[in-house]
Amino acid sequence: MSSDRSLVELLARPQGAHITKTPPRLDPRAKPSAQEAQDAVRTLLRWIGEDPSREGLQDTPTRVTKAFLEHFAGYTQEPHEILARTFSEVEGYDDVVVLKDISFESHCEHHMAPIIGRAHVAYMPNSRVVGISKLARLVEVFAKRLQIQERMTAQIADTIQEVLQPRGVAVMIEATHHCMTTRGIHKPGSLMVTSRVSGIFKTNPDTRREFLSIIGKSGAESLAR
Ligand SMILES: Nc1nc2c(ncn2[C@@H]2O[C@H](COP(=O)(O)OP(=O)(O)OP(=O)(O)O)[C@@H](O)[C@H]2O)c(=O)[nH]1
Ligand SMILES: [Zn+2]
């Protein structure tokens, strides 16, 4: 192509058309395909110096994406729906209900490293109670997302408060953060403890003490006031 011709063609283009267009901004929430997710795993494998085509790694991208679907299943579940069904025939039971030692596995949003812990969930019913398994399901929904422990604690407590409208809620979580135990500062055995209380658990020290005693933490008087 002569330089004259290319100049003519260039001038004939609409103004600015010769400038490479900025690619459209990706919607950060648009879901990539399974293929794209598996390719991303292959990229990471190459990045650590591995050969994704070797026999032992050939199915690894599929396994990893499948595992991710399990680790992060909480994004497809609606927490409020879990507590939708309640029972009122409780013979006037209006004392504290506690489900303690609910084990969970989550992942921290900073390193995507496991957070392994236990949650203790209590509420003071207001004429209606919820099926007790639903408290564990609620923990599970929030655990199966990328988390920081403080937010997970608050989300569990706030959802119970919003949906059941009990006289109070108390949630305590104790967890080990693998980003602190297996990397970084390497402090195995360190345990992060968070709590969120509302209603009567906040205003009445006796109710708070009862919760702490039931979960085996009597003496821990400093729970958020
Ligand atoms: N508050 C809080 N911090 C968390 C949680 N999970 C992880 N972290 C912390 O998030 C912080 C991220 O800090 P950065 O300095 O950005 O990351 P980093 O350089 O990898 O930090 P180090 O872990 O200290 O090596 C770290 O201090 C983690 O310990 C959590 O649930 N709650
Ligand atoms: Zn982390």
Automatic annotation (TrEMBL):
<feature type="binding site">
    <location>
        <position position="111"/>
    </location>
    <ligand>
        <name>Zn(2+)</name>
    </ligand>
</feature>
<dbReference type="InterPro" id="IPR043133">
    <property type="entry name" value="GTP-CH-I_C/QueF"/>
</dbReference>
<feature type="binding site">
    <location>
        <position position="108"/>
    </location>
    <ligand>
        <name>Zn(2+)</name>
    </ligand>
</feature>
<dbReference type="GO" id="GO:0003934">
    <property type="term" value="F:GTP cyclohydrolase I activity"/>
</dbReference>
<dbReference type="InterPro" id="IPR020602">
    <property type="entry name" value="GTP_CycHdrlase_I_dom"/>
</dbReference>
<dbReference type="GO" id="GO:0006730">
    <property type="term" value="P:one-carbon metabolic process"/>
</dbReference>
<dbReference type="Pfam" id="PF01227">
    <property type="entry name" value="GTP_cyclohydroI"/>
</dbReference>
<dbReference type="InterPro" id="IPR018234">
    <property type="entry name" value="GTP_CycHdrlase_I_CS"/>
</dbReference>
<dbReference type="GO" id="GO:0046654">
    <property type="term" value="P:tetrahydrofolate biosynthetic process"/>
</dbReference>
<feature type="binding site">
    <location>
        <position position="179"/>
    </location>
    <ligand>
        <name>Zn(2+)</name>
    </ligand>
</feature>
<feature type="region of interest" description="Disordered">
    <location>
        <begin position="12"/>
        <end position="35"/>
    </location>
</feature>
<keyword id="KW-0554">One-carbon metabolism</keyword>
<dbReference type="GO" id="GO:0008270">
    <property type="term" value="F:zinc ion binding"/>
</dbReference>
<feature type="domain" description="GTP cyclohydrolase I">
    <location>
        <begin position="38"/>
        <end position="215"/>
    </location>
</feature>
<dbReference type="InterPro" id="IPR043134">
    <property type="entry name" value="GTP-CH-I_N"/>
</dbReference>
<dbReference type="GO" id="GO:0005525">
    <property type="term" value="F:GTP binding"/>
</dbReference>
<dbReference type="InterPro" id="IPR001474">
    <property type="entry name" value="GTP_CycHdrlase_I"/>
</dbReference>
<dbReference type="GO" id="GO:0006729">
    <property type="term" value="P:tetrahydrobiopterin biosynthetic process"/>
</dbReference>
<dbReference type="GO" id="GO:0005737">
    <property type="term" value="C:cytoplasm"/>
</dbReference>
<comment type="subunit">
    <text>Homopolymer.</text>
</comment>
<keyword id="KW-0378">Hydrolase</keyword>
<comment type="subunit">
    <text>Toroid-shaped homodecamer, composed of two pentamers of five dimers.</text>
</comment>
<comment type="pathway">
    <text>Cofactor biosynthesis; 7,8-dihydroneopterin triphosphate biosynthesis; 7,8-dihydroneopterin triphosphate from GTP: step 1/1.</text>
</comment>
<keyword id="KW-0862">Zinc</keyword>
<keyword id="KW-0479">Metal-binding</keyword>
<keyword id="KW-0342">GTP-binding</keyword>
<comment type="similarity">
    <text>Belongs to the GTP cyclohydrolase I family.</text>
</comment>
<protein>
    <recommendedName>
        <fullName>GTP cyclohydrolase 1</fullName>
        <ecNumber>3.5.4.16</ecNumber>
    </recommendedName>
</protein>
<keyword id="KW-0547">Nucleotide-binding</keyword>
